[in-house]
Design brief:
The chain is α/β, with parallel strands linked by helices. About 30% of the residues lie in helices and about 25% in strands. The protein has eight helices and 13 strands. Strands 2-1-3-6-12-13 form a six-stranded mixed sheet, sandwiched between helices. A four-stranded antiparallel sheet has the order 8-9-7-10, covered by helices on one side. Strand 12 and strand 13 form a beta hairpin. About 45% of the residues are buried.
Amino acid sequence: MKRAAAAEALSWVRSGMRLGLGTGSTMAHFIHLLGERIRDGALSGVVGVPTSIQTADRAHAVGIPLGPLHELAPLDLTVDGADEVGPRLDLIKGLGGALLREKMVAVASRRFLVVADESKRVQRLGTRAPVPVEVATFAWQIHFPFLESLGARPVLRTHTDGAPSPTDNGNYVIDCFFPSGLPDPAGVDAEIRGRVGVVETGLFLGLASHAVIAGEDGLTVLKATGGPPPLSEAGSR
């Protein structure tokens, strides 16, 4: 299903695009397919902005040209996965540890296309996946009482040996589990992001313009309320 969603997302890519490249298992399929289209000449002039070192390595391996965000923004399209997809295409992202760069690239894009399988769809954010919170490494423990006051059960993300698992930016991630999900994602996001020492959250609210959801019965393309039309209707810009 992930490969099917990635293949559909590839149909949105046009030659000459400035393209944000997300991180994760579904994006591995998308990057592989995009590399094939570039190598066989079906797409030309595409330049990608990777959201992680892992994605950059995968893109280099299949021959996708890359460039820096500050030179290529605004991007025509960003394609990325999600850990949860809510009813209005609000998202939880960041279980792969790339939430800060993913959000920076998404914000700098004219269209943000989410690719996921149907298991990621939820009626309330936070019911299946924790909310990742990227924090500075200095005194990271100080955030735990604050996060608990918001109803979360915070857990520092670690390697298998128990050592902290830093992001590509050198920060730590605290995964916040909410037993009953988030009744007010925007309020929680604002509270967390307003705290000194917090770098970013994995709540992507109001950013996705479209989503391709793959299920046993096929593909479903969803559009956020007020979002731009699909590229098939509007062209690449």
